[in-house]
Records
---
Amino acid sequence: MSLVSGPGRGGITDDRLPHELRLFVDKHVCYIQSLDTRKDELEYWLTEHLRLSGLYWGLTALHLLGRPDGLPRNEVLDFVMSCMHDNGGFGAAPGHDAHMLYTISAVQILATLDAFGELEERVGGGRQKIGQYIASLQDTTTGTFAGDEWGETDTRFLYGALNALSLLGLLDLVNINQAVEHIQECANFDGGYGTSPGAESHAGQIFTCVAALSIAGRLDLVDRDKLGGWLSERQLKNGGLNGRPEKKEDVCYSWWVASSLAMIGRLHWIDAEKLTKFILNCQDPELGGFADRPGNMVDVFHTVFGIAGLSLVKYAGLVEVDPVYCMPLAVTKRALGKLK
Amino acid sequence: MSKYSDDPAWSDIVPLPQDDGGPNPLAAIAYKDEYSEAMSYLRAVMAENEMSERVLGLTEHIISMNPAHYTVWLYRAKCLFTLSSDLKAEIAWLNPTALKHLKNYQIWHHRQTIIEKLDSADGEVTFISSMLEADSKNYHVWSYRQWLVRRFDLWHEGELEAVEGMLKEDVRNNSAWNHRWFVVFGNEKMEGVDDGVLEREMDYAKAAIYMTPQNQSPWNYLRGLLRYAKLPASTLKEFALEFASPEKPDEVHSSHALDLLADIYAEEENKKEAEKALDLLAKRFDPIRANYWNYRKSLLELPAAAS
């Protein structure tokens, strides 16, 4: 799935809006399906280092739109497997180094397609191999996780590790308590969390920390009222959400902020109706896709997080999303249920 | 025409084109050709694990076209270390490259790897300042700065002064406020701070609030100080009353002051005033979060509300 932006722009910036306040499902499906046909555009190739995550975004968006068969299952599976390395990690595309982020995307896609059986058929012991790769990236002195062998650490990687390992049923390969302690060290004076101890609170990082605590069964450690207060303060008068104080709104924070609020049971602290309007104003009603804010180019990243945000606030007709995994709730229930 | 196929220095390499199972569609634009050719040479040298000067040149070329390609950065770092290259020269090249690609993220980890190996922070703070001049809230730059301060023990090397300079430029820069907290309280080797420092920080945040009463960052900072020092909210009662009072709804200069006052009245078990403040927030000054303020009101009914 390519990350090519456009062709369309989100939103209509004049007063024609009111009658447009609906979700253009078919347009978004076509938009996502068309992404992989745009190989004559330079940007297609310049975004190759993101492709596997792009596939996860596109596939998840289609599932949430109720079109799980929108992409050819076998081709998706073939592409995912072509990104796997001998060490159990996945690169963004064939020939790219293995990295935590793409390994998580691969596991999420495999879980969504219910394809862990096929993984084993294609790579004997594949599940275990992936689990071992992820576990090898835990920093045993701090409990956090690196993105690859080069050692850059980030709470994004920690969350991703717990996300993927839980879907694989292999959480026991890592030291959960130590990971939880690390997240607590990332808690800031304002109630939020950052990328590492001391780093500024950021809604994206808050999502990763809260979701990781949720997977670890340790949401009791979160000061829900304080964090919920900070998160709900992210809503601006236009209904959109920003990621930090004094920053602009962006559709992707519809996901990071709202999912975090949902996990701590405080989603009703923001105005869902205004958020819905903001998100819908970011779609391109003609060519499909969502932009970060009205008037900008659409892309698949903002498309999935816009749709997932709408699903969180129960927009009619969408499949229910799991706020912890950003996957359809039915999928995570199935994947996690199989393990019990 | 072609940068590599016509260059004798590369004549021993058979480029490996992208294998995407179909005819190669990369023909229309010259720039596209340039990128695709360079990538096909990269695939070929990576297949042989070649570490050489020409590989450094090739990675530099690809990075100039696509700095987000993480595999290229990693291969470049491996190559630099294998060849024992001049790492100061690498930093000198990285500086303009980072300034050209402000939103790029891979470059910061590369820089950290190089500086770690160089074991010297010389010139880094100056460079960071020029980055922040271009984008004062860049998350990667601030994270890198924190790493640098910790790694080279720069806590007392002008960080506080630098942050003050930035807040003077833009008192709403939340990243700078966060860095201030980090510089004052973030040193793990330090055992608490004395009362003088606490007072200085209180005064600093208050002065910022006088300038911009509706600015979230200094209010958050002030509240953080209360929590850190385990002081009751009522410590700030007089100060908050300068900006708002539930009794004078037409003279509210800061919703954050009302928010704090609600906590202060709750602490004092003055339920009536606390409710007034929260009602004003829910109905007039921050209605988009009415549910939040109403929840806060419901807490007043609980016996533990004051704690």
---
Amino acid sequence: MKKFLAVRIFNILVTLFVIATVTFFLMKLLPGSPFDEEKLADLSDEARMEFYARYGLDQPVYVQYAKYMGNLVQGDLGISYYYKGQKVESLISGRIGPSALLGVQATILGVSIGLILGMIAAFRHNTAWDFFTMFIAVIGVAIPNFVFAALLQYYVGLKWGILPVAFWESYDSSILPTIALSMMVIALIARFMRNEMLEVLQQDYILTARSKGLSQMKVIIRHTLRNSMIPILTILGPIVVSLLTGSLVIENIFGIPGIGSLFVDSIKVNDYTTIMGLTIFYSTFYILTVLVVDLLYGIVDPRIRIAGSKG
Amino acid sequence: METLLEVKDLNVSFRTQAGVVKAVRGVNFKVNKGETLAIVGESGSGKSVTSKAIMQLLPNQTATYDSGEIIFDGQNILEINDKKMEAIRGSEIAMVFQDPMTALNPTMTIGKQVAESILNHNKNVTKKEALQRAVEILELVGIPEPAARVNQYPHQFSGGMRQRVVIAIAIACNPRLLIADEPTTALDVTIQAQILDLLKDIQRKTGTSIILITHDLGVVANMADKVAVMYAGRIVEQGTVEEVFDSAEHPYTWGLLKSIPDLDADEELYSIPGTPPDLLSPPIGDAFAARNEFALAIDYEVQPPMFAVSETHSAATWLLHEKAPKLSTIVQEKESVRAKRKGKKNLTLAQPIIQVRDLKKHFRMSGDSYLKAVDGVTFDIKKGETLGLVGESGCGKSTTGRTILRLYEPTGGEVYFNGKPIHGDLKKSDENTIRQKMQMIFQDPYASLDPRKKVLDSVAEGIDIHKLAASAKDRKDTVQNLLEIVGLNKSFMNRYPHEFSGGQRQRIGIARALALNPEVIIADEPISALDVSIQAQVVNLLKDLQHKQDLTYLFIAHDISMVKYISDRIGVMYLGSLVELAPTDELSKEPLHPYTQALLSAVPTPNPKIERGRERIILSGDLPNPINPPVGCRFRTRCPYAMEKCGETPIWKEAQPNHWVACHLIE
Amino acid sequence: MTNSTLEKYEKTNIEKNEMNNFDHLFKEDSFKVVGAKKDSQDAITRPYVGIFKESWLRLTKNKGAVVSLVVLSILIILALIGPYMNEYTYDETNYEKAFQEPNSEHWFGTDKFGRDQWTRIWEGTRISLYIALLATVLDLVIGVLYGSISALVGGKVDNVMQRIIEVLVGIPNLILIILLIMLLKPGIFTITVAMVITGWVNMARLVRSQVFKLKNQEFILASKALGASNSRLIKEHFIPNTLGLIIVNMMFTIPSAIFTEAFLSFIGLGLQEPLASLGVLINDGFKAMRNNFYLLLYPAGVIVGLMVCFNLLADGLRDALDPKMRK
């Protein structure tokens, strides 16, 4: 088990190193700069060099790279080009709150509704219920989340005026974006749960359980649910991705001061250090999620637990 | 005797995409207290559906009970509500399923799975008491160290041990009726002997009635008091085990009994022609008529009723009607059809066509461990003979066959074909020759044909590869001819594999192998996926082809009785090595190796008289893990005669002329 | 042997009247031995249906798939001919006619520059479909080659190729696409390339696992035993048996490519004015949503229609091509 963990962590570090390097050089290759070139041109040579020196841009690329990587190890993501004088890590930590709230809410809402829909579809297999829930699942995957968010904003916010249209003012402001964000999660989970349950319900051990004289309810709770919910862990990775990318557009649409809108804004103003910092942040978050999922899988599934402890 | 269960005129049908399948069509039988009823039939005969109907375990979305009654202990199970049925299930009637690998919940400890049943039916038992009782039951079914193992999960047990756990669950509440649905089909034969023994032991101790669902007449002869034979959804004959085995009245029962090789009789194996009918549209009259050589005109028109032969014996055939021709004349006819077995081949002077020398094939597993699937086997196959290779799962018999055919590169050793080595770098022309001269028939008739190819193209594949056909017409004619040889209608050429039954597919596979006029055919479990009546067809076809086309066979199988019938010599493998090799008669009459003795003794014969008085050698324990086999003689961990010397690897020696063995007992 | 005289019918089995009915059924030669019937023994009773026709029949039984197929055809035809159905072009501005609601002149209204929205939407649909198809085809080519080489060669090569995939999978791919587009500057081709750089991985993994599964199938071994060369195995067995999977995966890739393109346009990394794609139009529509909702509604409707239909059709195809569904 320890060996397994060590190998995994080593792999993660390699992946992160590759990502940081690639991002760094991509940014160096980018045309244009975050600064107002015209204004810079007006400055004297000395003043301009001094300006560049402030951002470490006067040195050769490899030195910049070494410095950046060195700082990165210490958790220093550099200074934002756009938000003058602000450190990228403090920018991120300052704006992570709303994103985290939305993410957690959307996960809870999405997973619980998704599970319920999936179960209904499986138990009422080949009925109108099944058809209806699966239609919702297809719609959830098929409608682009920004279209859905825009429609929600228009109807619920503007036309009917039930909930705040945008901005981060009260808890109510988080409701619409949460719904918009959770739609994809609902769809993914509902579909997966349905297929898993249908699979499990056909297994011989369900017959064994029924032949013990257990009631339908007990068979479901003790034998079906656990075994069909374990594999859902495997799609948590894709779900996190859908939440991350969803947050980029949805935070923008609803004007939420989270890291998703920070990322999109940075793109618009060529704030390279912030883009790099966020890329590394997102990647780390994603990779750690996948690791946690794998570890959890080992805990909930005895087959893997045993195999893991041997190796 | 008191009746425990009575099934009256049960009819069950299933809705499928293709239409309504009438799986059970008017079944009647009784089970008395303490007795064992075996329901025998081939796949699709309705035997499993009947047993699940008694348990009310059929999927209620697709299955419907069209009519009938199932009376258990005075009440009709088909009419009681779910609550009452739940109270009966597991406590009054319990069930053992076929495949122990899938019948247990993988994420629940076995202790909980056994205790669950106890808790469910005894309201005032605590969890702790239930678990304690589970330990006792697991001990009863022969799980070693049950107190420690209750906390383990199913995947930590071997197949045989898991089946014991399944049985433990079934008997946890002392049911009055135990339904065992093919309880040993998925197990190796030495493990089967253990499980059958256990079931009998349980019956002796608890007096439970057993309904045993099986396709294996040997198991029936061993276990049953009464037998019901099912065909196409109906019971065609039932009676005591002696009545059915000794004086069968229904032609299907005759056919089945004669389809099983009987080593003592020198007769050609009888095979029932054709395949069972499609129950989407069951035939009018007797469903068996189309395959029945002695069918009467009325058989094609009116379904025969059950005619009673004695108090306990009855059969559904018009042959028992007073106007029907006398049975004796038919029997004479029947006997005349069955030719005497062809004279024994004289192979003592035959040259070896294949020589296998110290062949090894190791597979790399995860990490640095190796699975030594084949670990140094040496033998010859003589021209024109059939060499049988038997052993239990994981013994390396299939790997041996595949390595001989160059489907795997060996780890060590060599194989010679007509004196020339066949592995390593060969000239293209030599390789082509070997490819044409040696062919293979596979086990799984569903996986061995490309689902996206027509029969014509599958059979013609070898012809295409070696460019043997001059024209498209030539190719087609050859395939047509091959299909005729294996007994298939040539109109099948343009159809796809999924339209055929297992036996038909196996014939297509044989035709494909024959297309290159091979000299040697390696048949890898060619009949183990087939029904009994179809097995006989395929074996007869193989024998016939050998005779006509001068073929040499390596016949790999786990069913030793069929191997005994077809083979001239038999080799026995255990965990990657050959333990004994001898002419068939000698091996079956005087087996030298303790494993061969146990293997032969474990196979039940379809003869109740023999089975009743038989003392079995029952091996204890399971097959060791082939990744980490015992040092020295690999059989020593299960061998009743194991001694200190067995820690050394025994030498492969010719103990008697033509009789090879690897055992320290034989000097 | 028991004699053959009819002793008695078993009473429990047959109703009395039914029993009596038998006698009149007997004819003179009823009890003549006629023997087995060879032709009906082995007969295949179910009608013959070709493999493609069968899949097609199953697909057409799926209502969702059929409706999707029809709607998709209409949308594709409109994408092809829609822009030519009136006299406007997609970049023709007319400031006097800005922000017109849908009317008989401009069927879908006009945008802030007075451009005809009908023309722009179908033009945009065409570009979106074009990008999606191109990306999907490139994914297909790279993914199938990579996956099949990895599986067929196996061993160390497979190991290395799998490590590369693992690193790629470790990065959230939309982020990578965004970075690439910032580098390459948005355009039809660069957007496609950026999507393909990570998009092929999924196809490669699917193909690899399918080929691995096939490799150990008995029909492949049988073919090897007959002496088939590797190229023959690939051509005759691997490709035909992987095709269904590839087609289904392609059908799922197209909508996700449509989505990605629209997503990029929406966050400002899409095509530049005056070019339009569905994403660009939705972005414009969103900005003008408050007063001119129709500008959002129509392109949103088209994209939702495309996505839902492709997904439903892919679902239907998956079921129709699944060999397990065959009986």
